[in-house]
Amino acid sequence: MANVLLVYAARQGATGEIAREIMERLIQRGLHVDLRPTNEAEVAGVRNYDAVVLGSAIHLRHWDKEAMRFLGDNARELAARPTWLFQSGPYGGDPAHQHRYPPAAVAERCSQIGAEVPKIFTGNLSGELRNCDEIESWADDIADKLTAGKVTSRV
Q1: Is 7 exposed, middle or buried (0-12, 13-18, 19+ CB in 10 A)?
Q2: Cα 66 to Cα 39: distance, rounded to the nearest angstrom
Q3: Which of 48, 74, 115, 151 is least surrounded by CB atoms within 10 angstroms?
Q4: DSSP classification of residue 11
Q5: Where are the beta strands (DSSP E) in 20-121?
Q6: CATH: 1.10.340.30, 3.40.50.720, 3.40.50.150, 3.40.50.360. Which one for 3-147?
Q7: 1: pLDDT strictly greater than 80
Q8: What is the mean predicted confidence (pLDDT) over 89-97?
Q9: For the stretch 93-112, what's the b/e string if a residue is b when 16 or more beta carbons lie within 10 angstroms of its beta carbon?
Q10: Quick one: how far is CA 9 from the chain centroid?
Q11: Which residues face 6 on adjacent strands?
């Protein structure tokens, strides 16, 4: 059974709710998941996990500073294991049009650690989810890859 660290940074409620939804789905699929906000994730240590999922709220085309710090501080460890990223936002409008591409700093980090660009999920300031099916589908894809052995540590 894969041991997954699910880390999130959020100023409001949507990103944390998305992270919890992902966690619940991964657990349903038989994975062990440790959910932590970024300020508690350093205590857990990335080394102790087989895979990492990192999420951040996006504000004015920038990721949360704590998420960027986590991504930078743990780049070597993230590059050594399967890593997925997601971003929460924007709040309203057409997310595919407004945030079609991740912020440049995030895209650069993704390239450095060998991760795909972040999956975009929308939410709102109250934490209400509007795309549960999309979140579950993405989590199922992660679970499928981890349980089928399609991704392995790159160490």
Answers
A1: buried
A2: 7
A3: 48
A4: S
A5: 32-37, 51-59, 62-63, 83-88, 119-121
A6: 3.40.50.360
A7: no
A8: 54
A9: eebeeebeebbeebeebbee
A10: 9
A11: 35, 53
Average pLDDT over residues 90-97: 51
Q: Where are the domains of the chain?
A: 3-147
Distance CA 120, CA 124 (A): 13
Chain segment 16-54, per-residue pLDDT in tens: 999 999 999 999 999 999 999 998 866 668 999 999 999
**Token pair for residue 31?**
């994975």
> What are the DSSP E strand ranges found in 26-140?
32-37, 51-59, 62-63, 83-88, 119-121
Of the candidates 77, 64, 78, 80, the residue with the CA atom closest to the CA atom of residue 19 = 64
Alpha-carbon distance of 23 to 33, in angstroms, equals 6
Please tell me the pTM assigned to this model: 0.87
